[in-house]
Amino acid sequence: MSQHQVIKRVTAPDIRERKGGETIVSLTAYHAHTARIIDPYVDFLLVGDSLGMVMHGYESTVPVPLDLMIMHGAAVVRGSSHSLVVVDLPFGSYEESPQLAFRNAARVLKETGCGAVKLEGGSRMGETIRYLTDRGVPVMAHIGLTPQFINILGGFRTQGRKREQWAAIEADAKAVSDAGAFAVVLEGMAELLAARVTGQIPIPTIGIGASAKCDGQILVLEDMLGLSPKPPKFVKEFAQMGAAIETAVKAYAQAVKLREFPGPEHVYGMRREQSVEAAPDAPVTKKTKITGT
Ligand code: KIV
Predict the structure, then answer these.
(1) Beta strands in the chain (DSSP E)
(2) Where is average pLDDT lowest: 60-64, 186-190, 286-290?
(3) Contact 122, 178 (CB under 8 A)
(4) pLDDT category, 29, cuts 50, 70, 90?
(5) Hey, which residues does 194 pair with through a beta bridge?
(6) Residues facing 84 on adjacent strands
(7) 169 CA distance to ligand 1 centroid (A)?
(8) What does the pLDDT look like over 49-99, one tens digit per residue?
(9) Which residues, 6+ apart, have CB-to-CB distance to 248 below 8 Å?
(10) Which residue's alpha carbon is at the smallest distance from atom 8 of ligand 1?
(11) Cα separation of 292 and 285, whole Å?
(12) pLDDT (tens digit, 9 = 90+) per residue, 211-241?
């Protein structure tokens, strides 16, 4: 390498070092515009495969293709400059073998410029997480409620509300941590279990529907903005943007119908020397040519 460049973004090791320290703040982002707004206030931006449902209207995350994740991931990287960008590996792109996972994770890192990938699964993904981290791919794990398993789980059910479920989930957390994940998302998990897991592993836990006992929190941006039709119980709506959009669109429709919009302030006039004298049907000469659009 001819020159070491200073990495200004938050990195995966920075997140790893926050275990037990200042609470980690994160949100999902799917496009450049919103990434730019959120970026200064979060430690990492997750390009979650939930974009399949939120942006593309799929019923679950299962149909999301890798190319779509790469397209949105690149947009979020372009729109941000401070936070770590983590991109989800979608269903079917990593489960088959560590080698396939590496090929696809390498594409994600190269083609988006992001700093880490996230994948779902605990003990069963240990070997893959080790394979990726040994080859330069920082991995965030995701355990508890894993939406890519919807067809096995039969629904989005909270995990760990029965004590007999705890051992398996605790083993998952230990497995991903031992395998080298730099952080782990705990989704849809009873508070008591989330607190136990957080106390048992040396990497940060990022909760979504898993209580304030985790080392950090994440929400889907559209859920916390009040844009989602039926947000889960664990979501707090910090704004009512769905209602605000509807009010704005109604006002726009009415203004257009009443010909109140566009008003004089939104209209392009003629050049100053042309203005009033130029009759609407005056021949267009070099001088009367309309400029600008
Ligand atoms: O896809 C996603 O948005 C996620 C979060 C729910 C953590 O994985």
Answers:
(1) 24-28, 44-47, 84-88, 116-120, 139-144, 183-187, 205-208, 216-219
(2) 286-290
(3) no
(4) very high
(5) none
(6) 44
(7) 18
(8) 999 999 999 999 999 999 999 999 999 999 999 999 999 999 999 999 999
(9) none
(10) 48
(11) 16
(12) 999 999 999 999 999 999 989 999 999 999 9
Give yes or no: 17 in active site.
no
Give the mean pLDDT of the chain. Answer: 93
Cα 49 to middle of ligand 1, angstroms: 6
Using alpha carbons, select from 145, 92, 137 the residue that is nearest to residue 121: 145
Q: DSSP label at 138?
A: -
Ligand 1 nearest atom to the CA of residue 120, by list position: 8
* Residue nearest (by alpha carbon) to ligand 1 atom 1: 48
Q: How far apart are CA 249 and CA 234, in angstroms?
A: 29
Report the distance separating Cα 276 and Cα 256, nearest Å: 26
Rg of the chain's alpha carbons, rounded to an integer? 24
* 283 alpha carbon – ligand 1 mean position (Å): 61
Q: Whose CA is nearest to atom 2 of ligand 1?
A: 48
How far is 238 from 185, CA to CA, in rounded Å? Answer: 22
Q: Which residue lies with its CA nearest to atom 4 of ligand 1?
A: 48
Structure tokens at 2: 């001819």
Provide the 3-class DSSP secondary structure of residue 248: helix
Ligand 1: residues with CB < 6 A are 28, 46, 48-50, 88, 142, 185, 187, 208, 218, 220
Report CA(293)–ligand 1 centroid distance (Å): 43
Interval 186-200 mean pLDDT: 97
Share of the chain above pLDDT 70, in %: 91
Which is the catalytic residue, given 187, 191, 246, 260?
187
What confidence tier does 271 reach under pLDDT thresholds 50, 70, 90?
confident
Query: Tokens at residue 175, please?
Result: 């497995």
